[in-house]
Amino acid sequence: MSYLTDTTEGAQYLLMGNEAIARGALEAGAKVVCGYPGTPSSDIIESLAKIAKDMNIYVEWSTNEKVAMEVAAAGSFAGVRSMCVMKQNGVNVASDFLLHLAGSGTRAGMVLVSCDDPGALSSANEGESRFFARLVEIPLLEPGDFQEAKDMIKWAFELSEEIRNLVMVRSVTRMSHASGNVKFGKLPPVDVHPVFKCDGFILDPMEGAVMSLPVRYKHAQQQEKIKKARAIFEDCPFNTYHGPEKPELLIITSSACNLYSREAIGILGVEDRVGLLKLGTTWPLPPELLKRHLSRTDKILIVEEVLPFLEENVKILAAEMAREIGIKTFYGKNDGKIPMVGELNPDLVVGALAQIVGIDYKPVPDEYAEKAEGVASSRAPARELTFCPGCPHRASFWSIHNALQLDGRKGFVCGDIGCYGMATLPCGFSTLKTLHAMGSGGGIASGFGKLGRLGFDQPVLAVCGDSTFFHAAIPALINAVHHNSDFTLAVLDNSGTAMTGFQPHPGLKVNAMGEEVTSVDIAEICRALGARVEIRDPFDLEETQKTLNELIEDKAGLKVLILRQICVLSPEKKAGKKYDMTIDDEICLGENCGCNKVCTRIFRCPGLIWDKEKMVTRVDDVICTGCGVCADICPEGAIKRKEVA
Amino acid sequence: MASMQLAQDPYNIIITGVGGQGNVMASRVLANMLVKRGFNVTIGETFGASQRGGSVMSHLRVSATSSWSPQIPRGRVDVVIALEPTEGIRVLKGYGNPRAKILSNTRAIRPVGVIAGEQDYPSMEKIRGSVRELASSAWFIDATDEAVKLGSPILGNIIMIGALSGLGVLPLEREDFKEAILRSIPRDKLDINLKAYDIGRQIIKQNEDSTGN
Amino acid sequence: MKVFGANELLEDVLEKNLCIGCGACTYLCPYFRAYKGRTAILFPCDLTQGRCWAYCPKVEVDLDDLSERFFGRPYEADPLGFHRSVKISKAGRQVSGGTFQAGGTVSALMSFALNKGYTRAAVLTDREGLLPVPRLALSPDDILQCSSSKYTASPTLSALNQAISEGHDQIGVVGTPCQVLAIAQMRSNPMGDKDFSDPVSLVVGLFCTWAVDFREFEAFISERIDVSKITKVDIPPPPAEIMEVYTDNGKMEIALDEIRKLVPDTCSYCVDMTAEFSDISVGVLEGRPDMNTIITRTERGEKIVDEAQKEGFLILDDIGKENLEHLIWAADNKKKRAFLKAQQEDMVNTKEEGARCYLRVRPQTVEEITA
Which of A236, A404, A481, A541 would suit a FRET pair with C265, their CA atoms being 20 to 30 Å apart? Predict the structure, then answer.
């Protein structure tokens, strides 16, 4: 039993924001929860999956976010509270369905939890999901602390049922992955009998057909729903004000920025000069509430991540109310006080605030600052990202890189999203030359593969992971086969969704809740498409590279090479080393002509260390995971592998 | 009600190291011990990419009153627990101040740039020197060595928690540790974890110069 | 010899399209490899001096140094290079089996040398389809398998490098002039290795006016014929101006002018038609498709040729004045043309401080050649 299922009302726990959201779903009686792994959202599904059986809820890792939203919608249509969870760009993937769902409306409460990643700590973008709420016209809520992360979910479900449309709750990394004290509420007894009522009058919202048609009718209804939400927001307990009646400056903020702003005010000691309006309901903005607070002062600072969503919406309202509230001076992103790029932190807010209220703030005394500056950066050498020791990707990219060099026609690789995305870096021999969204590697490659008719002559490769394959790669592959596009796809199959924490995907026989399910075979799909398919073990460097050169030289359209080797973080691999690795000092050539440290300088596995004194390589037994691949790259055979008994 | 007056409110701790050293587990255990004592604890940390050989930090805010920003502001750390010595220096450069204390492990984890022979890893002497420049008191603990003696290098993080309890700046009790650690480990591992905790605590208590060498 | 490293080799040879794909730089380390007729560098190497540079026949070749070492005198303007005799030859009765090209002299010499222990292994060039494949031969049968002419540049020296790293010595090598030049550089111990001992006991050079690029050749031929059906390729001696491609169904003739378009630029800088740094050089004989021209250069080369004749492995005869004159004229042509071109492009005896160049040789010799 997880502490998340503690039925003690008022029990206090230290919870991650994501765990608070999960508990919130339990307290709301949600019964269907689905999503796709994406940092910083994955833990919500993971914590609920662990207790799914005990709590009789259905938790699913769907193939991609669009499907996840559709699965959750089904729950709602059948009268069961449902939640779908994703990271910011997952909303992009689901957006077409989201648009139509917002048009058709929902039945039992449905909540979309989007976890954004300002600063792109684990993403290839820092896109904003908040704009979708405004774009598709659904209410948007943003929790401002950990208690709210829980409480808001239940409130969101109630709101959703009040207006009969889904509600978006937006979190950020510093809320989802941060932890704080949370007091539990009641766990309701939930008796569900899902029924999809659809025989009634076609336009009946609870018994008719669920669709966004007729569009103008449904769209008008949608706008009524938004108006209703706006009215409810005027009294929402998640919109709070702290500060003097008539402050010099009013800060308007939401989400984790609430915590930064509160702390910034404290650090500068301007509690009696600066007021803090924390909004939990950020779309639509409740106009009366805004009017009240905007009337307090002429100077407004808006603190948010990443783009000026709140700022611009507040400014629109302020312009509309100008006659009543007067002209305001706005500070925020558009005037440069708050950066438009990256995540925020208390120091950045302090900096903006100090400028506006005219305080000269120093985080540490000058003397200390100089000392800190004086400590050379060489005392804390930078740590580059790398593949784990024993990672099959290191071996795969070694072969891919070398096959292309041998081929000599300036071939290149289109990259995709996953751990292997790091192959844009030296750890993957800087092999990847494009990197965008899930499945884009194959899509872009299928484009390059058609340029031959215009004289293009460079070999084209793409890579994608096993999870990415199911999520987004298939349509591009169908495109390639159908249009006879000439490229080679390497599917890096490590039996899991590794980057986000090794979650299962359709290629595996087990689901999120640990139940046995049907696996879908990647090779079979590719063969069915009509591609040439080969399967190899990336740890067999010679065979892999030979096959790659063969495929690259084969002019016949789409070729798929499945490189199958399990991730070193998987439970099976963690269980034990396959080989004990040692280095024969006598044979190691080190820096001399004939080697020049190929294992540490180029291969760069963290398990191999260059010993500057002895001028040889040695194995770090604590870090080495015993995959044995390095023995095959040593030109002298100095690296020995011995099977562990 | 919080059971001890904190020297600062919020009291700020940073646990830092390299991905895989168990700083997340350490921060959880520590935080749960303090929540048990009635405190509000806010933890800020990142997972994912930083695990692949990168630097990691957990920021802990211990408070009698409320949640705080999950990122500690510059110049505001009270205690640094460095599971890796150069990471301790990195943290002190960004968050240190004249009264900061540091408990530092002595075992180096070389970055890829160093093991490839492209960067230099500073000597222990240089590390001690820089640490002492930036901290009011510093303790250097052979946490990994002690953990290896116990049979498991990963226990280094538990030894450091024990050491923190020995400092006496926070109400950290053995019973609370026991309860907190059982949330993360199977029962049959409890004994060895308690041993590790005790060893860490002992190292600090035994040190005659309790203001840190 | 001025020795530099991989980066300079990239700049001066690979990026300037001077590489002929001889294989001298490959398999010395993890970085240089040959693949389908081209030389590839897998990863950058930052050493300032390396064997890849030292062995390469297209950079910093000091012809006087090499000549002193192997022939006891500086490089001179002789079109055929230093030699003791020029004759004609063909394989003798003792050489059994194998489908020889022309007179079969090379196969005869290599079989004899291995038989008698003058060599313990041989580095030769075999063929898979049109692709030349370097091979280490350890038995007479292995040798005969490789007996046929190849007209595409082959990285044969990769097999020599591998053989040496595997501990072989007393190795015999058959190579083109560029390969023979690289072997000469290698044998001169350019890196100053204290423990150096010469692993090559016999160098047989082949006459060569040009070679074609494998990839271009394969593309060209496959447009005209199914490459997998080819049994033999031959360029008969002048005055025939054709290439003959044989399959089971017969022979296809291609005008040599078409083939010449596939010759890489680098061949136009080559000053050596008869592999001047070999022990023995062998080529075709004008007008006589069943014979070879054979040039003996060194003492050990002479010894082997004499014994091979005595023991029935080789049949020798006089070359005759006319044939000799034609040979000299052809060799002189190539040498003069190449030297003029290289000189014009400032690739000979480059004067600037620290400059790297292609050839170094006494200026008076250059003048004599180009006059």
Answer: A404
Distance CA A136, CA B158 (A): 49
Structure tokens at A214: 């007729």
Kindly list the residues from chain A whose CB atom is less than 8 angstroms away from the CB atom of residue B32.
14
Task: Give the closest of B44, B48, B74 to A39, CB-based.
Answer: B48
Assigned token pair, A85: 């969870």
What predicted TM-score, i.e. pTM, was given to this entire model?
Answer: 0.93
Kindly report the length of chain B. Answer: 213
From A408, A595, A635, residue closest to C38, measured CB to CB: A408
Interface residue C41 vs chain A (CB under 8 A): yes
Nearest to C30 among A401, A429, A633 (CB): A633
DSSP state of B73: P
Residue C132, SS3 per DSSP: strand
Architecture of the domain defined by A240-357: 3-Layer(aba) Sandwich (3.40)
Question: What does the pLDDT look like over A199-216, one tens digit per residue?
Answer: 999 999 999 999 999 999
- CB pair distance less than 8 Å for C29 and A594: yes
Report the C-alpha gap between A554 and A548 in whole angstroms. Answer: 10
| Crossing angle of helices C177-187 and C63-71, rounded to 10° | 70
Q: Give yes or no for A345 touching B (CB within 8 A).
A: yes
User: Which of C42, C47, C191, C227 to mutate against chain A (most A CBs within 10 Å)?
Assistant: C42
Q: Each residue of A362-420: pLDDT tens digit?
A: 999 999 999 999 898 889 998 888 999 999 999 999 999 999 999 999 999 999 999 99
Q: Taking the CA atoms of A590, A591, A592 and A596 in sequence, report the sign of the dihedral they define.
A: positive
Q: Which of A46-60, A278-292, A609-623 has the lowest mean pLDDT?
A: A609-623
Q: State the distance between the two ends of chain A, measured CA to CA, in whole angstroms.
A: 38
Domains and CATH numbers, chain C: 6-214+262-370 (no CATH), 215-260 (3.10.450)
Q: Which fold has domain A392-573?
A: Rossmann fold (3.40.50)
- Alpha-carbon span B194 to B178, nearest angstrom: 7
Positive or negative, the CA dihedral B180, B182, B185, B190 is positive
Q: What is the mean pLDDT of chain A?
A: 95
Q: Which residues of B touch A622 (CB under 8 A)?
A: 153
